[in-house]
Structures are given as structure tokens and as C-alpha cells.
Amino acid sequence: ATAVALWLVAEWTALLMLRYAVEGSWRFNIHGLDATVQSLLAHLIFYLGSIAAPFPVFRFPGYLGPSLYCASVTYQTIASPFMLLLAFCLDGGSRLPRTGLWAVLGGTTGLLLLGAALMGSYMVPEYRETFYKHKSLKALLQWAWTERKRCGLGEGTDASRADVLAYATWVWPPSDQVRAWLEEGWAKWEKEEPDWFTDKWKARLRHPGVPREALPPALKRTFDAGEVAKERFRRASSLGLGLTPLGAENLGSKVKVTPE
Predict the structure, then answer these.
(1) Are 66 and 130 in contact (CB under 8 A)?
(2) pTM
């Protein structure tokens, strides 16, 4: 049991280091779920999934990514016979049905190779490289920032960029690009009110992890004023003065900003 536990811990650690090498960070990529505990839990799910059933969704950049997904499947296929040999070495009493286990492993490995060959043969050729060719999440989101015209939030460049900012800040485009986009479009979005320009989306920009240099000066002043108003309300409430928040909770989300 100790040997198996050490093997699993070594694999878990190696995968964590490889994800860092591929993505530049081991943290999870979803906004609000990129803290240490949540990121480690997400990594545990990726690891358990990779050794139990390598779901194709794991090839998505930000999970394992194409190159690491391909390497993981290859490693698990090669490592399985060695794991079985280790189990036989630890089985001093020869209680394991060795012939039967080797037959099962050989049969399932053959099915794996056959399934991979059939999938590759019938797959749309343009999608084959998504199973092995390296692409980081940052690179994918930079493409979405500059070229994508349609996403889950709607159509157009603005909707696509708004969707990019739903990810954790460590995969955002450079801060100067984000600041220029916000400064250029904020007044227009307040007038047109696109579907994605919600209080929830605007509140993301107030997250402590958002780089200050990614926000236009006018927007930073508005957010700072909102935090001051919220703090005054909390202090007044703690003293039992019975004051109303006067919209302090929403001051940072329902903002009117004139770009400088």
C-alpha cells in the first residue's frame, strides 16, 4: 500500500509540475476558483480523471491541454504493465490470478489502441491536432480576444472579449489591452446595454485579483469610491446608527464612467 501511495503521489506531483510548465501556472482558470485550495482540488480531479478515464474534454487548454493530454494517455498505457508487475512483486503469496490479469490488460490495451485508431480515422481532419498539438490557454484566449466573433455571450468582438474576462486574471490579455478596450467602450455599453453588460459581469472587475493597471483611471476612482461608501456603511451598521446603504453595494457595478 505504501509503494502504491508513493507512486500515486509522485504522478500527482509530476502532473502538477507539467501543467505549470505548459500553462505557466498550476492554478485553475475560472474566475473565483483560482485560489490555492480550489486549484489543488481541480488538479486532483484532472489527475484522477487521467488515470481512470482520459475524457477528451481534458485536452482543452487550461485543463491538461492537447500535448499534456496526449502524453498522459501514452504514459498511462505504457505504465500499466509496470504497475501490474509491481502488484505481482508485492503479492508474496501469489494470490493474484496472474494469467487472467495479463489477459485483461492485453485485451483492454488492444481495445484502447483500436478505439484511438478509429477515432482518428473518422475525425474531422482539422480537429486531430487538438488531441496532441501544444496550445496554452493564454494563447487560446489571446486568439479569442483578437479574432473570435462569436461566443456564449453573443456575437461580436465586444462579447468575445467580455467572455475572456470571465476567466482568472492570470490568463487575461496584457493589461494595456484590457484597459484600452474598457476605456473605449464603457460609455457606449452604458447607452446600448448589451446582454453581457450585467451587474455580475461588471462586479468581476472589482475583484481584488484584477490588476489595477488593467482598469481605466475613471473606473478605478469609481470603484474606490464604492469601497469607501461600503466601508462607511459597515461602520455605521456596527454602531447601530440605522443608516441605509444608499446603493453602496452597487456603486462599483452600476457605474457611469466617462473615459478620459
Answers:
(1) yes
(2) 0.72
